[in-house]
Structure formats: C-alpha cells, structure tokens
Amino acid sequence: MQFLPELFANNREWAAQQAGRDPDFFDRLCAIQRPDHLWIGCSDSRVPANTIVGLAPGEVFVHRNVANIVRPDDPNCLSVVQYAVDVLRISHIIVCGHYRCGGIQAAMGPASAEPLEGWLAPVRSLCREHQDELAALADGERRWDRLCELSVRSQVRVLSRLPTIVNAWAAGRRLVIHGWIYDLHDGLLRDLEVSVDRPAP
Ligand code: CO
C-alpha cells in the first residue's frame, strides 16, 4: 500500500502540466543547473522560496533551517554556501527571515529542549545584546518582529565573514548578500537594506 497517494497524484498532475506547457522543461533541467540566487530561509511551511519570488525550478538554490540561521560551525549551511558560490557561481545570496517566526520566538522565551536550544543560541545572544532596544518597544509582538529583523541582519554579517565569501570577493567575483523579511500577513517581502557586496572594512 502506498502512503500519501494524494501527493503522488498531485505530482503526476504537476509533471504533466509542466511538460504540456513546455515539452523541453525537464530535459533542460536535467542538462544544467544554473541558478543565480541562493536563498537561505526559514523551514516554516508558510515561506516557500520559489513561490513567493516567482522563480521556477532551476532558478534558485535553497537552504532552509529553523529561523534561517547561518552558523560558522554548521557544515550543512556552509556546504550549501560553498557549492552555490564555488560551483554554481551564483551572484546573489538572499537571507530571508519572516515576521512571527516560531524559532525567533523560542529564542526569546524559556529554554527549549536540545538540540533546538543549542541551535537557537546565536539568536538568544542577539536578543540579550539588543535587550535595551527591544525593551523600549511597545509590546511583545513588536519585540518579536524586531528580533526577526535583527537576526536577518546578523546572518548577513556572519555570511560576509565566511571564508567562501571572503575568497570570492578577493578573487574579484560579483557577489551580493541581501537581507530580506517576509510578512505573513500580506505575502510581501521587504528589503532590510543591509546588502553587502564587499568585505567589511
Ligand atoms: Co520561521
């Protein structure tokens, strides 16, 4: 017996539609992968990378984890960045957070069980670092949303110091790191205007 038959039915329908619209679609995807964007986003089911920026399969290389955190000690994320930059030679890395992120909220509250608590440690530190700014905000939801933004900015900074990125810039490569945030309420993205395209002075 097959589990989740409806998903296989959806898949057959999707594949037929793609091939109907564009008979070369799958042949082209098989032949080459040449995305120009790396998306680092949250695992949250409401923030699907391709869908919200209208990019087709083959157009965005994706890494997602809880709360879209970039950690210099995470071989998973670092391998994705390395492959995207060195092999795929992408030009844009987008760190996309979202308001009302459950991971960010967890890092503001009582300790979670491991391994989640350890994973969220950089966000918990960031929350402590900015406690004065956060405390000055009117309510818990504003503090939560602000920490979502601060975290994106922090991940952009972490990325800009990774050896893969620093070496690409040193080699004269064009590579821009962007920090965006997605609003679940209206489906709109906002550029936090923290883009960097060169090493910090
Ligand atoms: Co999230």
CATH superfamily of the largest domain: Carbonic anhydrase
| Radius of gyration, whole Å | 19 Å
Strand order of the largest sheet: 2-1-3-4-5
Low-confidence stretches: none
Q: Percentage of helical residues? A: 40-55%
Say how many strands there are.
Answer: 5
Question: What would you note in describing this structure?
Answer:
With 201 residues, the chain is of the alpha/beta class. The protein has two domains: 1-31, no CATH class; 35-191, Beta-carbonic Anhydrase, Chain A, CATH 3.40.1050. It has helices spanning 5-21, 25-31, 49-53, 75-87, 102-108, 116-119, 121-129, 131-135, 140-160, 163-170; strands spanning 37-42, 60-65, 92-98, 176-183, 188-191. A hairpin with a 4-residue loop joins strand 4 (176-183) and strand 5. The chain is globular. The mean pLDDT is 96. Bound molecules: cobalt (II) ion. Residues 42, 44, 67, 98, 101-103 line the site of cobalt (II) ion (CO).
